[in-house]
Design a protein that fits this description.
This protein has helices spanning about 5-20, 25-35, 40-50, 55-70, 75-85, 90-105, 105-120, 125-135, 140-155, 160-170, 175-190, 195-205, 210-220, 225-240, 245-255, 260-275, 280-290, 300-305, 310-325, 355-365, 385-395, 405-415, 435-440; strands at about 345-350, 375-380, 400, 420-425, 445, 460-465, 480-485. It is elongated. By secondary structure, the protein is of the alpha/beta class. The chain has a 7-stranded parallel sheet with strand order 3-2-1-4-5-6-7, with no helix packed on it.
């Protein structure tokens, strides 16, 4: 409660006592003020009630709701927790508790609150939506989608559930369905800034950067202080090569939310692209400090060119794994031995196209010993009508396009095809999908070529390097076992 509201509550408390205003009447008065948007006056009434009756359920609960409305979940939670101690079976309080816990990233506890609320009021659409968010926070994306499906089945006009359903589908890389769900949300509520933001995320995820930037712009017109929309529009503009505009967005995000490490990270990258070294060292040190403090939002690709400390680089990638990758369940490969006549090697990338990686590796793929190895390409990049694309596709024995498949689907496909060695050609570069490897679809998993730094993950067994890329004695800074080629780790195509 604010100091002004606290003083008002004391005065109101005296007034309540002097007039013998009943607590039910006071609660009704507070609720009427609350519903009309007069939050400070409602807060004063609730505070007055608590002066007279410190354990009054409605006042505790609704004061917590006001704090949540002010985007202060850390202040909301103790009030709602106290309310639930008074009335543990209140479905509205349980639902609000779950919402607040989600905003505090306490997703396991939120899920418990949702189940308690649903035990009181089964199939409540708002609670099902909140449960979906908790499951998404736990990266249980299939279950999250099922909860949003149940929410919109219960209330087809619940725009927020359609929007969140789009997010769940996006996490499962079911992009067209995600866009359809978001369009449904916007048909119900055209000025829904969060749905426009989510739509931008989906469009960006499928490489439609210009459309993504336009969707973020529409969201920002409705909510100019939406910091993450600024960040994501900046990222989309960067991908379009519009780095000056991107830098302006990231600078604005930093000004609005100085604690947002990702915005600082990307602003530093934009300035490096512009050869602007103003404050470069100070900005890099801020990222180093963030990593040493265990913070989130530092991009490994930016960090690796921001410091020459191999210890900090390993710490950064370990944080990235923890932040981005769902807690590993049972690995898909569980020690089985395959009886193949040839070793099955799968190369995974979004860059089997006119790209530096393809220029380097195509002849290597062509020259694999086919009497001993079967070579499979797994691609989620664009299907370009180019000479480079045709040649690299033909270099594989089998070529699989997985653009519309989620990480789990791709991992299961690798396991079903009994891949012996899976090679990540991307790491933490643009469009990398290390989440596929996190599910351990293959007995041997390798980091090669695209990102010659550590991925910081225990599910990557080896990194292919040489004595220059990883000098002797530096192995301690790599989560992978280092395999050095005798001259250079970098293949080059002699046919270009």
């Amino acid at each position: 409660m604010s100091a002004a509201a606290d003083d008002s509550a004391v005065a109101s408390g005296k007034a309540v006592g002097a007039t013998r205003l009943s607590l039910p009447d006071a609660v009704r008065r507070g609720v009427a003020l609350h519903r009309s948007g007069r939050l400070e006056e409602a807060e004063a009434v609730y505070g007055a009630i608590l002066v007279a009756a410190p354990d009054q359920f409605d006042a505790l609960h609704l004061l917590g709701v006001i704090e949540a409305q002010r985007d202060r979940p850390e202040a909301a939670w103790p009030l709602i927790e106290r309310a639930l101690a008074v009335n543990p079976g209140s479905a509205p309080a349980l639902g609000n508790a779950a919402n607040v816990l989600n905003r505090l990233s306490r997703f396991d506890e939120s899920l418990v609150m949702c189940e308690r609320a649903l035990a009181v009021v089964p199939s409540d659409a708002q609670t099902l939506n909140t449960r979906g968010l908790a499951l998404r926070g736990l990266r249980r994306h299939e279950e999250s989608l099922a909860s949003f499906d149940a929410a919109v089945a219960r209330d087809p006009r619940l725009a927020i559930a359609w929007s969140n359903r789009g997010l769940a589908l996006h996490s499962l890389t079911r992009h067209e369905q995600a866009l359809a769900s978001l369009d449904r949300a916007l048909a119900i509520e055209p000025k829904f800034a969060e749905a426009l933001f989510n739509r931008g995320n989906v469009l960006g995820g499928v490489g439609r950067r210009a459309e993504a930037a336009a969707s973020y712009t529409r969201a920002l017109a409705l909510r100019p202080d939406h910091v993450v929309a600024l960040e994501m529009r900046g990222y989309a503009l960067h991908c379009l090569g519009r780095n000056d505009e991107a830098a302006a967005d990231f600078a604005r995000a930093v000004a609005l939310a100085p604690e947002r490490t990702f915005a600082h990270c990307m602003l530093l990258l934009m300035r490096m692209h512009q050869c602007d070294w103003h404050e470069r060292d100070a900005m890099a040190q801020r990222l180093v400090a963030a990593v040493r403090d265990g913070g989130q939002g530092v991009e490994p690709f930016v960090f690796v060119v921001s410091t020459d400390s191999a210890t900090d680089q390993l710490a950064c990638t370990r944080l990235a794994v923890r932040e981005r990758i769902a807690a590993a369940g049972k690995p898909l490969w569980r020690g089985e031995r395959y009886a193949h006549s040839r070793i099955r090697v799968a190369y995974l990338s979004a860059d089997f196209r006119e790209h530096a990686m393809a220029y380097l590796i195509t002849e290597l793929l062509e020259r694999h010993d086919r009497s001993r190895f079967e070579i499979i390409g797994v691609s989620w990049g664009p299907d370009e009508a180019t000479v480079a694309r045709r040649r690299i596709v033909n270099a594989f024995d089998r070529f699989i396009d997985v653009r519309v498949e989620g990480d789990g689907d791709v991992a299961r496909r690798l396991r079903e095809q009994e891949i012996d060695i899976a090679i990540d050609l991307m790491g933490y570069t643009h469009n990398g999908r290390t989440g596929i490897f996190a599910q351990r679809p293959a007995p041997v998993q390798v980091n090669y070529l695209g990102y010659p730094g550590t991925l910081g993950a225990d599910y990557i067994d080896y990194i292919v390097a040489d004595a220059t890329v990883i000098p002797e004695g530096e192995e301690v800074h790599y989560a992978e076992r280092v395999v050095r080629l005798p001259d250079s780790y970098q293949a080059n195509d002699r046919q270009r």
